[in-house]
Amino acid sequence: MIHFKNADKYVDSRFQRLFILKVIDLVVEQEEFVSIMSPSGSGKSTLLNIIGMLDKPSAGEYFFYDEPVHKFNERKTSSIHKEYMGFVFQAYYLIDELTVYENIETPLLYRGVKSKERASLVTEILDRFHMVAKKDLFPEQLSGEQQLLGVARAPI
Questions:
Q1: pLDDT for 13-69, tens place per residue?
Q2: How is the chain split into domains, by residue range?
Q3: Which one of 30, 104, 134, 153 is CB 3.0 to 4.6 Å from 1, fit for a cystine?
């Protein structure tokens, strides 16, 4: 599913090349659970940004379901995001003007899910995350549940 071959991420300055990631060889199979742990500043966020196709490696190859991510154009990357990816950022990027229900529904709108199926999926997620009673609230009306809302919205 995820396969890196000799992937590097670096920044060139005037006199030197600074490696953020160097010679990453990684295979993650479908349904495999992986933890990434290392000291602060060692490149974990950079690696996750590349895995999530928010950034590209400077060198090497990255395959997602055997497709060459390192050769994707923006349209292909966007298509993969819509179909396969969900993100929970440190800043939750909730849409303040939308209710809990609408925040959960938004990724489904982008994917073109029909109205009845969307309603069913949102209701299921609200129930699974015990947020049914909060569906009409706005993000600023939630406390620690903002992170829960970000997680609830991510796998859609």
A1: 888 999 999 999 999 999 998 888 888 788 888 999 999 999 999 999 999 999 999
A2: 2-84, 100-153
A3: 30
